[in-house]
Design goal:
Distance between the termini: 22 Å
Number of strands: 0
Helix content: over 70%
Strand content: under 5%
Radius of gyration: 20 Å
Largest sheet: none
Shape: globular
Structural class: mainly alpha
């Protein structure tokens, strides 16, 4: 049965519209995810690692849950027990990422940490090549692969230039280890979202994953944290925690799920390479983290590499 030209045109137009929406969602998540390390580092003055992670994800869940329920009702979405269990798969590496990221910020500054964390791109490329046949064509394209390597090389060079220390303080090896572990956790999370739960949609899928993350973080908070900490800190500190949870967790992850579904794990991770630039600016302003002109140039190279990689991916996906 042949497809009419009008029908084919409508399908092509719908595909372009979905991709454009996903691009905007990804751009918004990049902006939002320039700030999590800033929030987490600031909160460490009042909140320990286990406590702030649980309460941030609990607030993030509350913020996205009404939208998830509304979306599920509007689509008449049937969620099976298998779907609910599958959401635990990406939740585990997400928790690993979150805990290791927050712990790393005890030892290293947010700007440098965010750069190290972009090594998740390498992990994601390898995992995507293994898990997704539809992403192998993109990863094999010379322009995309070259841009990815330039982006990662820029991030590594930034790490090398910062390895002498920020403000004369050497970066602790424990911080580097934790940052790399967090990067691997993030890569696994991104790939598992697309592999196991992308069919649930962004808000529904993330709300269920976030619920599992809260269940995993709760015992850690009880044993290693301070459950009554919200009653002991200032209103301002609680406000910062809530704002960081709503923007970076509730909204940021929902937007990222949309990008993963329509653009793929590889290109989405490449775009997140841009977040160190925002984190560097914010960290310099808030924590007085300083960077050299070499680091600024490398940041610009990173930006250009990601932009070209994004362009290549869009070209392939709209063919």
């Amino acid at each position: 049965m042949s497809t009419s030209p009008d029908h084919a045109g409508n399908l092509a137009g719908r595909k372009r519209s979905e991709i454009n929406s996903a691009r905007w969602a990804l751009a918004a998540s990049v902006v939002l995810w320039s700030s999590p390390t800033i929030f987490q580092r600031w909160l460490l003055a009042d909140w320990d690692v286990a406590t702030q992670n649980f309460y941030r994800y609990f607030v993030g869940l509350i913020s996205v849950l009404p939208f998830a329920l509304s979306r599920a009702k509007a689509l008449n979405l049937r969620i099976t027990g298998k779907d609910a269990l599958l959401c635990a798969v990406p939740a585990l590496p997400l928790v690993v990422h979150q805990v290791m990221q927050t712990a790393a910020l005890i030892y290293i500054e947010p700007g440098i940490f965010t750069v190290i964390g972009r090594t998740s791109v390498l992990f994601t490329l390898m995992l995507s090549f293994f898990f997704f046949s539809d992403e192998r064509a993109l990863i094999r394209r010379p322009v995309f692969l070259t841009c990815s390597l330039f982006g990662v090389a820029s991030a590594c060079a930034l790490l090398f230039l910062g390895a002498g220390g920020v403000g004369g303080t050497a970066i602790a090896s424990a911080g580097v280890f934790l940052a790399l572990g967090g990067a691997l956790g993030w890569a696994l999370y991104s790939v598992f979202v697309k592999k196991f739960i992308s069919h649930l949609g962004s808000t529904v899928g993330f709300s269920m994953t976030c619920a599992w993350a809260c269940l995993m973080l709760f015992p850690m908070m009880l044993t290693a944290g301070e459950p009554l900490r919200p009653l002991e800190v200032s209103v301002w500190s609680n406000f910062i925690l809530v704002i960081s949870a709503v923007l970076c967790i509730g909204l940021g992850h929902s937007l990222f799920y949309t990008a993963l579904r329509h653009l793929g794990a590889s290109v989405s991770q490449n775009a997140i390479l841009l977040s160190p630039l925002g984190a560097v600016v914010l960290s310099a302003w808030i924590f007085d983290e300083r960077f050299t002109w070499q680091q600024v140039i490398l940041g610009a190279v990173l930006l250009g590499a990601v932009a070209l990689a994004m362009r290549e991916s869009i070209k392939l996906r709209t063919l």
